[in-house]
Amino acid sequence: MSNNTDDTHDSRKTGEGSSSLGAIAALSRRHMLGTSALAGIVGAGVGLAGGLAAPHAEHTSGTTGATSGGVQKDYVAPGQLDEYYGIWSGGQSGEVRIMGLPSMRELIRVPVFNTDFAIGWGITNESKRVLGENFPKGGDLHHPHMSMTDGHYDGRYIFVNDKACTRVARIRCDVMRTDKIIEIPNAQSIHGLRVQRAPRTGYVFCCGEFRVPHPNDGRDLNDPSKYFTVFTAIDGDTMKIAWQVLVDGNLDNTDADYDGKYMAATCYNSEGGVDLAGFMRDERDWVVVFNIKRIEEAVRSGQYKTIAGSDVPVVDGRHGSKLTLYVPVPKNPHGCNASPDGKYVVASGKLSPTVTVMAWEKIDQYFAGKLRDPRDVVVAEPEMGLGPLHTAYDGRGNAYTTLFIDSQIVKWNIDDAIKAYQGQKVNYIRQKLDVAYQPGHNHSSMGETRDADGKWLVSLNKFSKDRFLPVGPLHPDNDQLIDISGDEMKLIADVPVYSEPHDCNIVHRRVLMNKVKRIWTRNDPFFAEAVAMAKKDGITLESDSKVIRDGRKVRVYMTSAAPMYGLEEFTVKKGDEVTVTITNIDQIEDLTHGFCIANYGINMEISPQETSSVTFIADKPGVHWFYCTFFCHALHLEMRSRMLVEA
Ligand code: RUQ
Ligand code: CUA
Ligand code: CA
User: Fold this and answer.
1) Which 3 state secondary structure label does DSSP give 167?
2) CATH number, residue 619
3) 611 alpha carbon to ligand 2 midpoint, in Å?
């Protein structure tokens, strides 16, 4: 395994450059799009098409430099392991995908807000307990972030947002299973989500994007002056909401400092608009900074109210509050990204060609009363190009900003940008690399932690256009792998991805590999309720296979061990409420069984040492075979038994 690490590093050092080709393409593209592109992003359909013009002209740029001595740099040989885990958002698929980097192979999917027949997510009692009563059909997951301790990934949890149904979820890294989903009150549509970096996570923070009235029960429908949103702090250990902050405007993306003192969030609707023209009326919006200690003090001393029937303490952080700082920044900022040296936070301009660099130290000074003008916390505002959305870092003082309209990644130097802002004549732009096409987020290896290692960058492009075989009107996205280990960015691979990754984390395998369990631990809390029920019924899950009738409720307990279930049949009556609880007593890694009842719409996974349960009404009389769905044994097909439902 450790060989693999060395292989990956060595092979990358000898790559050949391609900058001249890329530069020419970049020039011609900028010439082609010209100034109409900015109009493009705001002019809806027609303009957007303009911004996307002529992909054929440059679609070969940047594809060289991918090999070293004939070996593709993202090549991970059979039997070798990737160096990084990629924690990928599944977007409107509502799931998280775990990838390997640099191979960019998808390793596994973690259902979160979606349902998944493969493992029975949304079917088993264990998953329904997480999803809640009447759970929505899906979710729109944008931002996965791993828990941290002192600015380092700690491999405990991954937290994610649901923009579609205003929820936040937590995934346990040890079993890669979602163990908690909560709804956020007093908000509509959770977008930005980040974790407290220090001293630990700690808080999970999230942004309510849409302004609506609260309570949102039909009153004040057409009175936007009554609309508002809140910034939410969740206790990541208990998944209970700690407090909320009422803000002016709306909230988009957010990020934390490295000292546990502040959060910053972008706002693109300072106008309080309710339509496109309204969202863009003003030349400036803002970044709002939250002073965590002051907010905690306000909550402790009772300086809060509760709203709309929820008991969550809400403090007032609108203009004039001592709890917040509103920093005016150019028009409709989007991404919010703290640099791994712990010094800066960068808001990307979107409708402005600039990004705004703010220093945490200056924010300290502002809250201490040493600075008067909120703009005094800004230390640089470098020009990037058209449509800056998100910024990533290499840990060597460079930043990488995506340009949605220009379809480029800009590599720039933070110190030089600060010097330029102070009036010195320095060029802070290091390189512009064409990507295909229209990047949203980008993310660098370990780049949102103190361990930013500057090896890989992924550009998560919203359009793939002509990059893959045509597969119908719906195109995959294109996540491009870029080598940033040298002085120049080099494009390594195009990877098609299903709708629609927004963001990802790239986590070195040393963080996770030894924390991830290969088989379940008996009595894991994930299936604790099934274990408790069995105990009440006097069942030893590891050995008993038995049917217990309790009025119209029937509880069926059985073991599974390749290639047999503990019961060859069980009998119930039509209309019975049946709970089937299966314990996989196999101990061998990877020996998963399934449980699918023919024509009942039920399937679930039972991995080694796991207990899974499902409850249903036996509404169809007759013989129903139940069978194993995971190929577990030469006699896997023979691993089936009968459920007899009496009429
Ligand atoms: S946002 S493309 Cu949903 Cu993270 Cu910026
Ligand atoms: Cu058990 Cu297939
Ligand atoms: Ca605006």
Assistant:
1) strand
2) 2.60.40.420
3) 15
At residue 115, what is the residue type? T
| Residue 466 included in any domain | no
**The token pair that represents 301 in the structure block:** 């001393």
Q: Report the separation in Å between the CA atom of 342 and the middle of ligand 3, taken as the mean of its atom positions.
A: 28
**Residue 148 phi, psi (nearest 5):** -130, 160
> What is the spatial distance between Cα 263 and Cα 467, in angstroms, rounded to a whole number?
38
The domain total for the chain is: 3
Contact 371, 358 (CB under 8 A): no
The predicted structure's pLDDT at residue 67: 63
Instruction: Give 260-317 pLDDT, tens digit per residue.
Output: 999 999 999 999 999 999 999 999 999 999 999 999 999 999 999 999 889 999 999 9
Instruction: Report the alpha-carbon distance of residue 559 to residue 128 in Å, rounded.
Output: 22
| Tokens at 479, concatenated | 């996540």
The residue-averaged pLDDT of 417-439 equals 98
- The rounded distance, in Å, linking the Cα atoms of 324 and 254 is 14
What's the pTM value of the predicted model, to 2 decimals? 0.91
Q: Which ligand is nearest to the CA of 608?
A: 2
Q: Distance (Å, rounded) from C-alpha 171 to C-alpha 169? A: 7
Beta strand pairing call for 546-550 and 504-508: unpaired
Residues within 5 Å of ion ligand 3, judged at the Cβ atom: 268, 285, 332
What are the Cα distances from residue 590, in Å, to 309, 312, 339, 507? 47, 43, 40, 23
Examine residue 106 and state whether it is found in any structural domain, yes or no: no
Q: Examine residue 530 and state whether it is found in any structural domain, yes or no.
A: yes
Return d(Cα 213, Cα 221) in angstroms, integer. 7
d(Cα 148, Cα 196) in Å, to the nearest integer?
A: 7
What's the sign of the alpha-carbon dihedral 207, 210, 213, 215?
negative
Mean pLDDT, residues 552-579: 98
Among the three residues 341, 369, 388, which one is the final residue of a domain in this structure? 341
Find out whether the beta carbon of 591 lies less than 6 Å from any atom of ligand 2: no
CA distance 152 to 554: 49
Closest listed ligand to the CA of 271: 3
Structural domain boundaries, residue 632: 525-646
d(CA 538, CA 567): 17
d(CA 408, CA 389): 11
> Is there a contact between 562 and 593 (Cβ–Cβ < 8 Å)?
yes
- The predicted-structure confidence for 211-227, as pLDDT tens digits, reads as follows 999 999 999 999 999 99
Share in percent of the chain as helix, strand, coil (round to 5): 15, 40, 45
631 touches ligand 2 (CB under 6 Å): yes
